[in-house]
Batch of 2 targets.
Target 1
Amino acid sequence: MPTARRTQRERRDQAEAALLTAAAELVVEQGVRSLTLARVGERAGYSRGIVTHHFGGKQALVERLARATQAGFVPGLDDLPPGLDRLLRLIDGYLGELGRIGVFNQAFLLLWAEAATQPELAPIFRERDAAFRADLREDVEAGIADGSIDAGVDAGEVATAVVGQLRGIALQRLLDPESTDTEALRRSVTRHWRRALGR
């Protein structure tokens, strides 16, 4: 039985997914400094020209990789209204996902850490962290408004502390997986924030 021909969009999406996967694998294996368009194309089975066609240059490739790796890290949150419950589910889900961290998320964390010393990466990850903090701030503000979070809490400070804690645990998990019990942390960290924020 003949197979249906893929559309141009399907071929483009498949190529982009393969290139992003190759880029993530290379970042994990060799670090961001060794990432080149030629290596990404070779790893994915395409020419460097295809990588250039899709992304233009290394900076755009890294930016797209950062966005792709962070999107949807914690599933099941989109249908929840902002507030304490969504905030706690995000914390619990984030730590749970660290227990089965894949190559995309490893690449994101390595790129995030590199951004502290790589000026070309810093704007990308400042923007990603700002968006993360904004989401968390929205949850805290909604919790204050509905009375589930203490009105004396500073939403911006909580957002910064949560991002710092989650990213720090993630980096520890990446550096030494055996020393970081993500299942135990899910319970203790979520319990901590429930107590710290609750009325």
Note: The longest helix spans residues 122-146.
Target 2
Amino acid sequence: MKLYYIPTTRAVRPRWCLEEMAIPYELVQLTVAMMKEPEYRKLHPHGKVPVLIDGDVTIFESAAICAYLADQYLEKGLAPALSIPARGYYYQWLFYAVTTLEPPVEKFMFNVMPHLPENLLPKKVTQECSAPEAQQWFDRVSQPLTEAVKNQDYLVENQFTVADIIAGGVLVWALKLGMLKNQPILTAYTEKLMARPAFRQADENFHAQVDS
């Protein structure tokens, strides 16, 4: 199994997942220049990370990779069984994290870090939402997560799952960007996730300054 990776990117999420599972994998750390090479474009059409190769399977998108791994190694306990109601809530938070929670964080990041090497969207699109607007947007969409974890440690049946890895991956960005300053419940949840040994192993930038 091989994971193509750049620190502090979405590729931290599948690496975190692999570390939680304690299964062997090869980590291929890329540079921006390497992602532009034709051979890598065959793995990821946009020249981005992450990419996972597992035998005959080559997939990209961090949430898809983590969901795939959780199902391939269901005995590791990072996803509820298909036959129980908790599976529905697992899907809910998994998709909520990437489709609803992450967009305002990304918009905020583009505003405060305008030189990010984003190669898919024009700059005017990445910055069309101001940082204060993105913060207000995030504050609204993060409220359901606050409600979900205010009385428990994890999102689904109080058991750590891939839903926490994907939501947590978004919230780590938000924490480091200073977007959780007025959200003590989500700050505590995020810091709890960041304290997990598997996260510390997966994120080389763990010791970077966090503006919380």
Note: Strands lie at 2-5, 26-29, 51-54, 57-60.
